[in-house]
Write a structure and sequence with these properties.
By secondary structure, this protein is α/β, with parallel strands linked by helices. Helix content is 33%, strand content 19%.
């Protein structure tokens, strides 16, 4: 199926969020999907302009897909290098609700499927905990490698989490005004200091309370009528979305749902990791087709 890709900007206060719209040539009332990336990432984790990636796969199968670049990332304006005065609080309380409202206006009467990679799922879940009324407009939740805290130990955790994310990144951000992850080749996009300062306590396992205003997400999550939820982890993801921590976050959300571990032991062609669970060519034959069944019959 032929795809149509174009970029739009969604205004949110003094910021403008880039959204990559990917759809079949003849959408015919296609159901909408909102995709949100994780930390030191942007929406490119989900698509390429040549038609690869999960977003393009789903559009090719009849969905209208909206891949967001959150504040300052990707094609959003201004870039973090130009203005880095926000944290994850603004993404939870402003960006994601604004994206949902914008898609609802384009697809009146159609609930929106939400998908996220890594920390993007934490932001989406936090948004629904804070604004539970939004859950009525969400058709499904699908999170890839999403964890709120890292409990596993080992050299990879000590390097990537304890040293780089918890210590080196905020130190560099204080010196330069933001963490230039692209310059240091540790990520696809940069992060502001506020984002680091607000996410690090959660990564360390502190309570699911907002560092900015103290909002108790854990207590609020118990009152959310969660949409059908699918948590997906990867066998070779040893730290950033370890299966144990993915399941721990589902328990923290207090949400019933489906859990899948992607690996050869469960019939897939690869023992997938944190990134290639979305980017490997084999994914189009392994778990991407299962997503189509899930989106059409999420209770199955």
């Amino acid at each position: 199926m032929t795809l149509v890709q174009h970029s739009l900007q969604v205004p949110v206060g003094e910021h403008s969020l880039h959204v990559r719209c990917i759809s079949p040539a003849l959408p015919l009332q296609a159901e909408p999907i909102l995709m949100v990336h994780g930390a030191i990432e942007n929406g490119r984790i989900f698509y390429t302009e040549s038609g690869k990636g999960l977003a393009c796969f789903l559009a090719r199968n009849g969905y209208e897909v909206y891949v967001a670049d959150l504040r300052g990332r990707g094609g959003s304006k201004p870039a973090i290098a130009e203005r880095a005065d926000h944290g994850q609080f603004e993404l939870i309380t402003e960006d994601i609700p604004a994206l949902q409202r914008w898609i609802e206006a384009r697809h009146p009467g159609h609930p929106v499927h939400w998908m996220a990679h890594s920390w993007g799922g934490v932001l989406m879940a936090s948004t629904l905990a804070r604004f539970p009324e939004l859950a009525r407009q969400v058709a499904t939740l699908t999170f890839f490698g999403t964890k709120r805290s890292v409990s596993v130990q080992g050299p990879e955790r000590w390097l990537k989490v304890d040293l780089v994310w918890n210590r080196l990144a905020p130190w560099l951000a204080r010196r330069h005004g933001f963490f230039a992850a692209r310059r240091y080749r540790v990520g696809a996009d940069d992060e502001p200091l506020g984002y680091l300062e607000e996410s690090i306590p959660w990564v360390k396992g502190e309570a699911w309370h907002d560092p900015r205003d103290g909002f108790d997400y854990h207590a609020a999550a118990g009152k959310v009528a969660w949409p059908p939820l699918w948590m997906i982890a990867a066998q070779a993801d040893r730290v950033l979305g370890h299966p144990t921590d993915v399941q721990r976050f589902q328990q923290e959300m207090q949400a019933d749902g489906r859990f899948t571990l992607l690996g050869r032991g469960n019939g897939q062609r690869l023992d997938y990791d944190h990134i290639n669970m979305l980017t490997a060519p084999q994914a189009q034959d392994d778990h991407f087709p299962e997503l189509l069944s899930w989106l059409s019959q999420p209770q199955g």
